[in-house]
Amino acid sequence: MTNFNLSLTTTREYRQPRHHLTDYRALGSSMLLERAVQRTVMTLSLKKLTSGLAGLTIRGKDSAKVRSLATDSRRVVPGSLFFALPGLRTDGHLFVAEAIDRGAVAIVCQKECWVPPNVALVQVADMRSAVSAIASRFYNYPEKGINLTGILGTSGKTVASSLLKHFLSSRGPIGMLGTINYEVGNRTLPAHRTTPEPVELYALLAQIRDHSCTDAIMEVSSHGIDQARVTGLQFANLVLMNLSPEHLNYHGSLENYISLERNFVEQQSTGLKSFIAGIDDSKVRRIVEGASENLQRKVLSFGCSEDAIIRAEDIRYSEKDTRFKLIWPEGSVKLVSPLLGEFNLQNVLAAIAGGYAEGVDPIEMGAALLSFESVRGRMERLDMDLPFNVLIDYMHTEASYEKGLSMVRGLTKGRLITVFGCGGNRDAGSRPMIASIVARLSDQAIATADNPRSETVEGIFSDMRKGNESADNLSFIADRRGAIAAALEIAEPGDTVLIAGKGHETFQEYSDCVVPFDDRAVAREILQNKQWQSR
What we know:
It is a single chain. By secondary structure, the chain is an alpha/beta fold. It has three domains: 6-138, MurE/MurF, N-terminal domain (Udp-n-acetylmuramoylalanyl-d-glutamate--2,6- Diaminopimelate Ligase, Chain: A, domain 1, 3-Layer(aba) Sandwich), CATH 3.40.1390.10; 142-369, UDP-N-acetylmuramoyl-L-alanine:D-glutamate ligase (3-Layer(aba) Sandwich); 380-534, Protein-Tyrosine Phosphatase, Chain A. It has 19 helices and 26 strands. Strand 10 and strand 11 (187-190) form a beta hairpin.
């Protein structure tokens, strides 16, 4: 780690904070982003970057030239402005000394801290708003030239975003920021957050602008809203997919989560063109019905309900595709979707509604739907010559398990064998319910590790067993590779093996390390070895 300057450490007590090892995965992605950004902005003075911020006081030279922005002290280079952000696991003020040692010319903070005379100290009333405002100025307001669509809600954001990008592609290059990756013109970067922190977010938007993308699609997570990562952005369209219990250990309650989403949409309402709402979800419908008059005028609803503006009728699901009649205000057409099941139909309708709001012909979108490839880790079918199906999915909430397994159950001729787990440092109260849902809807349910983080697998299993002691089809195998192998070993023709919980992820996260683990690659390797042994 960093060798700290003794002249700093002798004037006050300083203890080097211990970085969580999993932070380095995020750092690696951030470094790729930093290398990829081809900035056209000139070096800006501290005064220009900070003028007008609420509660602003500056001690030191406001003429200091700022060459880069950083919220992570490990990314500070000479000429950086460092934001000492308070966080959930640590406090950025603890890293001020490291940032100064690395060459920061200014520190932005919300409370008093010591800096040497050659470093400017900027104090503001609201750190989160200040980061967004400064990042926007530094990258020359990239958001102003981009037509932004935000995708909100508990599940389906990634598939709906990918579909909408597919439908809008005829308009030229489209930027997309989401759970799996960040797409900026002809460059794709690995994502480490669904919604990036403001410094990265505005850097990405600058790349999107510089690659001549006039449209961008963003997955907007509830954490991203609550932590003000999207403060200062005005969306042209917002799509609210659905709302069900998620991250309640963070939000405190389902009602808090719903209020957060509702308030964000209302705050955006003045500049919105369309509020695209999935009204088959009762909680989303409740937001629509209680919306302000201004927001009500902008509602474009979708779903299978009779009063949905964009809706599906005459629906037929099969193990190969989904067929339905699409209705919109000016017409109707019969469509075939390669995506399976009811919740994927909702994703398709959300994307079609998003395209319709942007003036794309629904018939053209219906034709484009046929060429859409599945999204990695979202009900992704393992493409191998097998007598049974193997599906990989990211489902990790009670609602997503209920919907996802019900759909797969209905499309499976034989048995449904599910491999699943519950992540560590997440809502422990949902664990027994998830195990109960999986045991009820599966013929065989195998619980295993799913990113234990700082918890033990046995401790997580103990939570999952509560109330499920009588489920004789529920077994527990701590090793995820072993659990997948066990499921594939018992699969017979006509069965479906569903490997759930991690989806697109290519790692397994423990308290002290992150190890490579890709459900798709592991399943493929096991199956190939099994086929080799049988010859």
